[in-house]
Amino acid sequence: MALDLIHSDPPAVPRPWLAGGLHYVGSTAVPGLVAKPILDMIAGVRDLTDASAAIGALAALSYAHAEHRPRALCFYKPAGAAPQHHSCHLHLTAPGSDLWRERLAFRDALRADPELARVPCPYRNKRRGRRRRAEAMTANPAGAMQVEIDGVAASPDQLRAAALGGYGHFTAMQVRGGRVRAFGRHLDRLDAANRELFGAGIDAAAVRDHIRHALGDDICDASVRVYVLEADRSPFTLVTVRPPGGMPGAPWKLRAVPYQRSLAHIKHTGDFGQRYYQRLAHARGFDEALLTGPDAIISEGSITNVGFFDGAEVIWPAAPALAGITMQLLERALADHGLPSRRAHVRLTDLGSFAAVFVTNARGIAPVGQVDDLSLTAATGFMRRLAEAYESAGWDSI
User: Fold this and answer.
1) Sheet of 168-176: strands edge to edge?
2) Percent of the chain clearing pLDDT 90 (strictly above)
């Protein structure tokens, strides 16, 4: 790819926040280097929280937001109809961050040493393998790049048995750079659910090894799910690895439905009503189903927790709901930032009284802009504090 083509598509939106310039990195930034057809860019910004306002603006230029590393905002521009094919990558981060130093130092080293640039790159070969696995996802009914059972690639018979079974539990996490936010909490969730469903705790070391094996040495960023499912003799552990995901930047639209999950405190498999109402909400143009119980008391979303800000405190529903990992992280982080949380019953008729409504799940946080026919406006200052609290949560090595 000719270098002069690189300069034909620089995103203008981040410029109000730039503090270190916009730089082209990766193979397309090195003259004479065989390059993949993707433009890699990195931009230095003064304040990452302020720069998060670029998510919506870049979306208007067809850039999608995806979580990558702590202290960085990652965007990609799809190339054509296949979502796994990208034409551009853009990272926003503070000048001097680890990501900033790594990308610029590697590019500069290749530019300065033609011999180094000609050395075959195992990483690029691994990327080709990863691309082939991503393209093969469409042939996998689970939509997974990799599916392993107890640390071994799943056989068709094992997948068939897993599909026919319906008793088990799981946890979902985003992996960035081989790390996970609050990985220990995911293990605690699996252990507690396993004791309740199967009468014994999990082997945390084995679960960790299964995740590492499924990721291999070539996948650093991914969406990972760990299932513990019923089998004839004893439960087995199934790990799926999919492309990394991020929370859509635009405010969410929720459709209220009269449904509550059974055993809501467990992240269990096989909830027909949960998926039914989620599909119904999507079919009617909404992003998510908002589950409610008697007297229109709000409990949770079909795949999210929902929170409310009354101007002084964050309120989480007291109705039966899963204590999501991101919700748990936010409760602690918000308290560290001087913003208390509490539980209370919240009804649909209360929604208009809140300064902000938001949703959380493993992919992040997002404001809610509409529930049924009610339009909501999120307090910008609060959402910034929420983002700061979320970004302050630590990442753990797997």
Assistant:
1) 152-153, 146-149, 236-242, 222-229, 168-176, 179-181, 395-397
2) 49
Q: 84-105 pLDDT, tens per residue? A: 567 788 888 888 887 787 788 7
On whether the CB atoms of residues 147 and 239 are closer than 8 A, the answer is yes
CATH of domain 252-397: 3.20.10.10
Neighbours of 382 (CB within 10 A): 17
Q: What is the pLDDT of residues 237-274, one digit of tens each?
A: 999 999 998 888 789 999 999 999 999 999 999 889 99
What would the two tokens of residue 348 be?
A: 């649909």
Q: Which two tokens stand for residue 38?
A: 């993707």
Q: 354 near 367, Cβ under 8 Å?
A: no
- Rounded to whole angstroms, the Cα distance separating 65 from 364 reads 11
Query: Where are the CATH 3.30.460.10 domain residues in the chain?
Result: 3-119
Which pTM does this prediction carry? 0.67
- CATH number of the 138-242 domain: 3.30.470.10
Give the fold, CATH level 3, of 3-119.
Beta Polymerase; domain 2 (3.30.460)
**Contact between residue 45 and residue 39 where contact means Cβ atoms under 8 Å apart:** no
Q: Could you tell me whether strands 298-301 and 152-153 are parallel, antiparallel, or unpaired per DSSP bridges?
A: unpaired
**Other beta carbons less than 10 A from residue 203's beta carbon:** 13
Q: What is the DSSP letter of 312?
A: S
Q: What tokens does 92 get?
A: 């926003």
Q: What average pLDDT does the chain have?
A: 84
